[in-house]
Amino acid sequence: MSISNESEKFNEKNKSEEKMNDVHVSSLADVASSHASKKQPGTAVLGTGLEARGVHAWFGKKHVLEDISLDFFPGTVTALIGPSGCGKSTFIRILNRMHEFIPTAALAGEVLLEGKDIYESGTDVTKIRLRIGMVFQKPNPFPSMTIKENVLSGLRLAQLKVSGEDELLESCLRRAGLWEEVKDRLGEYGGALSGGQQQRLCIARSLAVNPQVLLMDEPCSALDPGSTLRIEETIRELSSTMTIVIVTHNMQQAARVSDYTGFFLSDGGPGRLIESAPTSQIFSNPKEKRTEDYVTGRFG
Amino acid sequence: MSTSLAPQVLPEKPWRPTFKRVLPDLFGALLTAVSTVLIVAVTPLKGKLGFSLTLIVMALVFSVLISGIRKDKKAAFNSVSTVFVYIAATFVLIPLFSILYEIYSRGVGALTWGIFTKDMSLSSADAPVSEGGLLHAIIGTLYLVAIATIISAPVGLLTALYIVEVKGRAAGLVRFFVQAMSGVPSIVAGLFIYAVWMIGLGNSYNAGAGAAALAILMIPTVARTSEEVLRLIPPDLREAGLALGATQWRTVAMIILPAARSGLITAIILGIARVAGETAPLLLTIGGADAINLNPFSGNSSALPYYVWKNLSLGNPESIERAWAGVMVLMLLVFIFFTLARYFSGKRAGR
After folding, report:
1. pLDDT in tens, A167-208
2. pLDDT tens-digit profile of A79-116?
3. Are A129 and B237 within 8 A, CB to CB?
4. What is the pLDDT of residues B241-268, one digit of tens each?
5. Which domain holds residue A243?
């Protein structure tokens, strides 16, 4: 299945959903097709990305997200920006069904992975999370496991059988940009690494189960600038092989690593997707005044 | 290069009090001691109580005076609280060391190799202490503790997992009952087993019944402590496991339990500490014996606390000496067990 097909389908869908006036999906789709033509070779292995359709979220009675529709294209990085409390983290947790761990949480809408709603009843949620990995704000390597065990923990946890564990270990650590630093100390505990190394270890851990989509919830907010740079390089390198969604408070980071940017805002009520477009457009020529105010630092 | 010319720098600890700085405190301590001795000698205050009370008052007076004169009012108040903290700590330690000393001095006389190798089946109660032994009681206690642990460790741990990890519908209720159960008097646990297991179901005395009664006391301790330990595990570890596509059970087994291992071992140790010295439930359940009984599920059994209780109630000097030896062996047993458990839990956590 090629991506241009997908975006065509998506365009048609979009025409029928003209009520989504806040979301500049058409421009997104145009860019997506140009993107796809640019990245033609090898795109078939990427799958079809992820689509959120009319997603609402609640915590108890509080409506925290309203009608979010957003596409994440394979082989691209999408950054979600916006001030604190606008629902970006809630949204990214909805994308791999981590939202439901909060007892008061509720949801409406669809999240489509390869055209199938991940919230459809009867879906095996553990299989969904294998295909949609997540890296958290705070590095959280498993303290009782060594570096090697941490990377391979996803296989053990999901009881997957893999031949050539050592090759997988090396390739995951290489892709996460950590191999050179830890290749001689794979038997040490993950907690012995620095914060930035721990976060790259967590990325390597997510990669080991070979997800199609990688969600990153402020992965650099606990790290120093040097480690942040390494992680950003890692994200750029990974983006050619998977769909990446990153929540960030750092607008320079969004500008550096992402192909697309979605701007979330809450005016005291539920968070809304104000604008989503190619990153260059969001930062140079946003359609919405509020987006411009935010990215130029006038508020938030 | 100038490095050779630079003065050599040695590591120091400048925050440490120098001798000059602690001198006034030493002086205060000396004044306290001297004045206390003088006051006790001159005034009608006599005995240990009079001495310690005077010591406390004098320590307060001189520490306040010295810090007040050297510094200011704030320092004086600070030294008052310091003195009270030291007094409280001393009061906690006095009975502890007093008990340890008493047990040692009374029990060590009867502590011979023989008591670890013989039981009381061939010796009468008024036989010299060198005859007979308490092997049967040691074996009984080991059986009781082992069986009680086999029952309560998994039950307690699973209860804690239900409350913290599963967060089931009845978690609050279960938590409430666990807390209520930890306040149950130990004799009630014995009475329960006696009423249900023996009178109700027609079984007779044995170590298994005693262990069941101890398990009733041990489960709440293990469950509550494990609950606290599991709550300390950062929630992001849980999320990390689940986000990798693991089921809840795999996350608990591979991430939560290993991360909490040493704390959970401590929970079980605390449970054992709770029951190893229990006497009351055993009086109603194990029946007591003078001979070694290797079958915990049939026939009367003894236990160290039971042995101590029985020998004390016999009243003759030899029996009382045996009782003290029993107390000392019980204490040593618990101590050895704790040390082993600590060693193994620490060793595995650090690998």
Report:
1. 999 999 998 889 999 999 999 998 889 988 999 999 999 999
2. 999 998 899 999 999 999 999 988 899 999 999 998 88
3. no
4. 999 989 999 999 999 999 998 889 889 9
5. 3-135+215-295
- A–B interface: beta-carbon pairs under 8 A: 77
Nearest residue, CB atoms, A126 vs list B245, B254, B258: B245
**pLDDT tens digits for range B319-347:** 999 999 999 999 998 888 788 777 777 65
Domain-located, residue A33: yes
* Tokens, residue B122: 């061939």
**A interface test, pick of B242, B244, B249 with most A CB neighbours within 10 Å:** B244
- Inter-chain touch B243–A96, beta carbons under 8 Å: yes
CA-wise closest residue to B287 among B307, B271, B259, B312: B307
Nearest of B97, B94, B96, B117 to residue B329 by alpha carbon: B117
CATH number at residue A87: 3.40.50.300
Say what the pTM is. Answer: 0.77
* Residues of chain B with confidence (pLDDT) below 50: 1-2, 348-351
CATH topology of domain B135-350: MetI-like fold (1.10.3720)
CB atoms within 10 A of CB B314: 14
Mean pLDDT of chain A: 83
Report how many domains make up chain A: 1
Please indicate, yes or no, if residue A181 is contained in any of the structural domains.
no
CA B252 → CA A254, B151, B239, B248, distances in Å? Answer: 35, 21, 11, 6
Amino acid found at B183:
G
The residues pairing with A59 across neighbouring beta strands, listed in sequence order, are A62, A105
Scanning B239-278 for CB atoms below 8 A from A yields 239-247, 250-251, 254-255, 258-259, 261
Residue A165 is assigned to a structural domain of this protein: no
Work out whether strand A260-266 and strand A271-278 pair parallel, antiparallel, or are unpaired. Answer: antiparallel
Residues of chain B with CATH 1.10.3720.10: 135-350
Q: With an 8 Å Cβ cutoff, are B244 and A130 in contact?
A: yes
* Residue-level pLDDT at A45: 46
Location of structure tokens 């519908």: B169
* Rounded Cα gap, residues A248 and A229, in angstroms: 14
Which of B234, B239, B349 is opposite residue A98, by nearest beta carbon? B239
User: Minimal CA–CA distance to B238: which of A2, A97, A177, A140?
Assistant: A140
CB contact under 8 A, B242 and A205: no
Q: Classify residue B302 as left (phi > 0), alpha (psi -120 to 50) or beta.
A: beta
Strand partners, A30: none
Tokens 């020529």 appear where?
Answer: A285
- Interval B269-306: pLDDT, tens: 889 988 998 999 999 999 988 888 998 888 899 999 99
pLDDT (0 to 100) of residue A15: 41
Chain B residue with CA closest to A209: the answer is B244
Q: B315 in the Ramachandran plot: left (φ > 0), alpha (ψ -120 to 50) or beta?
A: left
Report yes or no: A22 and A272 within 8 Å, Cβ to Cβ.
yes
Region label for B211, one of left (φ > 0), alpha (ψ between -120 and 50) or beta (otherwise): alpha
Test the B interface: residue of A90, A102, A142, A221 with most B CBs within 10 Å = A142
